[in-house]
Amino acid sequence: MRPDLDDVLSGVQRLLLNDFLPALAASAPFLAEQAMYANLLLEYGKKTWPTLHLALAEEHGDLCATLASAAGALRGDTRASELVGAIDAATTSAVTDVTRTSLDALAARNRTLRELVSRVVILLDAQESAASDHPQRATHSAADGPRHAARAATDTYLVRAARRQYANLQQLGLIW
Amino acid sequence: MELHERLARYLSGRLGTEVRVSGFARKSGGASRETYLFDAAWAENGGTVQRGYVLRRDPVASVLESDRTLEVNVLRAAHALGLPTPKVAFQELTGDALERPFCILERLPGTPTPPTFPAAYPVEMRERTAEDFVSILARIHAADWRSQALDVLDEPGPGTSAARRAIDLWRRIYEQDRIEAHPILERGFGWLERNVPSTDVVTLVHGDYRSGNYLHDESGRITAMLDWEMAHFGDPHEDLGWAAMPYWSCEGRAGGLEHEDAMIARYERATGTVVDRARVHFYKVLGTVKMAAISLTGVKSFCAARSAEPTLAVVGIVLGRLSVELVQLLGLDAGNG
Predict the structure, then answer these.
(1) B183, A121: Cβ pair inside 8 Å?
(2) Is the distance from CB of B131 to CB of B219 less than 8 angstroms?
């Protein structure tokens, strides 16, 4: 149905670029610059909106897989039992059908799952620090394997997440 | 009454004569303070005095909530020590005159650069800026700051406390201002806490020493070093790590000026010290999470509708670059092709 979102945002952009910017350029250069940034954000919105549901669904799948791997690795660790329980509870109710989920709800779920990834990272950091506080330990303990597996799962997620964020930034067109 | 009219009234009161303000214009950048340039003119000894000034007023919301008293005290000390910094003309800690606290600095000649020195500028100009950039940093680190009244700054002392203090500060700001979890930043903070370096030397650290925070003349000579609001006592490697961060780099040049190795070698020649590359790396990681925390402060202000400045939303999206750089600095991408 027209005007669609692209029509609406494009119209506001034309207003900013053709009317506001020339009017402000001489008298209020700071405001003119703000109008330019506002235009940049509208362009970003136009570029990201059509595939936002796909991006959120991709992130959702990645978060669920990462948390499942991390929880699997940490399941035998008593210090991680509360966190593993929280991951199980959150991933059991995982939302994967984007056609039946609003973007807001999916974004909120992703935020919850990302919070759990953060908690896994913090737990692994605490365990790693505790292990390095005991350098007299000559051999690796049995707990190192699962910890490394969980670390590998979260680290590979962090790499993928950073690349997704960077791809998103490229939509803004502000690369140096 | 318009802001420039209130400013003229304030200056007239302070100088005891009628002051005319002209050319009053808000300047872009200066993300932690509202920055305005203006000229002031008044009658004195039968003639007219005309001077250029910079008004830096606390914003409603910003990417960095810093201490105005600290900035002004450090600026005064830097000026007294002969460093190229603007002289503080006036300071007001209340909002009585201009609604919010502010300071007024004497304007120095020169042009600012973007956060990375423009690649299109002539090579000779870039080389002069690179030379001054390091020599001023060496002077900052060698200056006798303890001869100045800088009680607003605590000294961490030698050892690991300088680095620990920096980690704690930026983690606190991250925790306070994040509106959602950022696992990559948690990973960064965890790495920092397991790799805390020790230092024997504690100096004043500028805290935001980079391209974009100096003025230069047409030949490339630096005329002023600005933005001292994050100054503190700490490990001088912190400034080197911040200046060499990938975030400010362009075409492999730190700050768009010169390769990091050349910058460090130049610093070693200027100071007669040996730079610890591992510590520079540590402070690059710290700088990257610090920049992310600063960005999140801006995002929080934007999302909470405390500010409508679109640049605060832009810095949030630009976190994507910091995330990729942190992944690389931590070596997480090795084997994750």
Answers:
(1) yes
(2) no
Listed by start position, the domains of chain B span 3-106, 111-334
* Strands (E) located in chain B: 19-27, 34-44, 47-57, 88-92, 102-106, 111-112, 203-205, 214-216, 222-225, 232-234
| pLDDT score for A100 | 81
The structural architecture, per CATH, of the domain B111-334 is Alpha-Beta Complex (3.90)
Question: Per-residue pLDDT for A32 more than 70?
Answer: yes
| pLDDT tens figures, B231-250 | 999 999 999 999 999 999 99
For the domain made up of B3-106, the CATH class stated in words is alpha beta
Cβ A37–B318 below 8 Å, yes or no? Answer: no
Q: pLDDT of A71-81, one tens digit each?
A: 999 998 999 99
Domain ranges of chain A: 5-50, 51-170
SS3 call for B43 = strand
Using a CB–CB cutoff of 8 Å, tell me whether B27 touches chain A: yes
Size of interface A-B (CB pairs under 8 A): 107
pLDDT at A38: 94
3-state secondary structure string, chain A?
A: CCCCHHHHHHHHHHHHHHHHHHHHHHHCHHHHHHHHHHHHHHHHHHHHHHHHHHHHHHHHHHHHHHHHHHHHHHCCCHHHHHHHHHHHHHHHCCCCCHHHCCHHHHHHHHHHHHHHHHHHHHHHHHHHHHHHCCCCCCCCCCCHHHHHHHHHHHHHHHHHHHHHHHHHHHHHCCCC
Chain A positions touching B28 (Cβ under 8 A) are: 29-30, 33
Instruction: Select from A118, A106, A103 the least CA-distant residue to A61.
Output: A106
* Chain A touched by B310 (CB under 8 Å): yes
ipTM beyond cut 0.90: yes
Residue A124 to residue B190, Cβ atoms within 8 A: yes
Q: Is B180 on the interface with A (CB under 8 A)?
A: yes
Mean pLDDT, residues B78-90: 95
Find out whether B63 and B296 touch, Cβ atoms under 8 Å.
no
Which of chain B's residues have a Cβ under 8 Å away from the Cβ of A118? 181-183, 186
A interface test, pick of B323, B326, B328 with most A CB neighbours within 10 Å: B323
pLDDT range class, residue B337, cuts 50, 70, 90: very low
Which tokens belong to A8?
């609406």
Whether B194 sits inside 8 A of A128 (CB atoms) is yes
Shortest Cα–Cα distance, B47 to chain A (Å): 30
